[in-house]
Amino acid sequence: MVDRKINFSAGPAALPLSVLEEAQEALISLDGTGIGVLEHSHRGKAFVSVYENAVKRCREVAGISDDYDILFLQGGASTQFFMVPMNFLDTDQTADYLVTGSWSQKAVKEAKKFGNVNIVCSSEDRNFCYIPKERKTSSSARYVHFTSNNTIYGTEFSTEPEVPNGAFLACDASSDIFSRPLDVNKYGMIYAGAQKNLGPSGVTLVIVRKDLVEQGKSDLPTMLQYRTHADKESMFNTPPTFGIYIISLTLKWIQEQGGLEKIGERNAAKAATLYSYLDQSQLFKATADTDSRSKMNVCFVTGDADKDAAFIKAATEAGFDGLKGHRSVGGMRASIYNAFEPQDVESLVAFMRDFEQKNG
Ligand SMILES: *Cc1c(COP(=O)(O)O)cnc(C)c1O
Fold first, then answer.
1. Which end of the chain, N or C, is surrounded by fewer C-beta atoms within 10 Å?
2. Is the C-beta atom of 78 inside 6 A of ligand 1?
3. Are strands 168-172 and 155-156 parallel, antiparallel or unpaired?
4. What is the set of active-site residues?
């Protein structure tokens, strides 16, 4: 077998090996059709079956009812930053935004182009190292938008924010979608670029309530209306077929692991292994506040930029790839999404312990 590194990349990120192996075969011939998955028409029987499986598995994994549409769109989560307000926010309406990192800031910037934005809370005062508890919701918001996991700063909401009557909840779940049990019924919509927890880049999963799709503005460019994609089952134009295929395999893998309950336990255990080492370490320290810690992106520093660099260099040489933190935080970030194997977290902790002994 090919020698694979331990990959801590924040996105695109590690995928389950079994998914990659199945995809490898399907590149040449999908399900015995003699035509590779990249080469099938999106209108043909073979791909339509891939698409149907992806939707079905998505509904099964998260218990998503027929009240919601499941869409596979393009343009990344970044396109959802403007599609949400473009479809749902009028110039005289207000949307509530919780600002917990640079992805939420980018979402706010887009929303302001379409209507009023009320900042419910912000953790910018401490470089986004916590999820604020003090919040100012507006009385008549059209929707409340939050980023469930803050990929760059390593913080995560433990529960959904409160939603005033008449508003719906919109969530950017790009970096923690399907990483733990989820009550979709609390949401008007959830969107996620696939490249962290679901599959490759180039496809965005959008779960949106059907009544909202109907309420969306109809004078927008056709491709930018949710209804277009809902009416045509994501096949108004050529969808990202390969991405949908990989998402379908990843969802099957989640089911084989025992579903979101089991995946959630596995992720919690992985994160606990790393945080409990960090909490007693004399050299390393976690950067997020204890009650706001992400189970997907674990950010830590030594407090000394040279030591950080020395650690990253040594780790890279030892086969631990992608540990360098985002430039806005510095230090290290271990992204340990769904597919990241528990024993690889153990290996990292063993390596850090050893590094601490030699350099502490
Ligand atoms: C990665 C990420 C994005 C950006 O996604 P694109 O698909 O690159 O547009 C947005 N939000 C969060 C929370 C992310 O982690």
1. N
2. yes
3. unpaired
4. 103, 172, 196
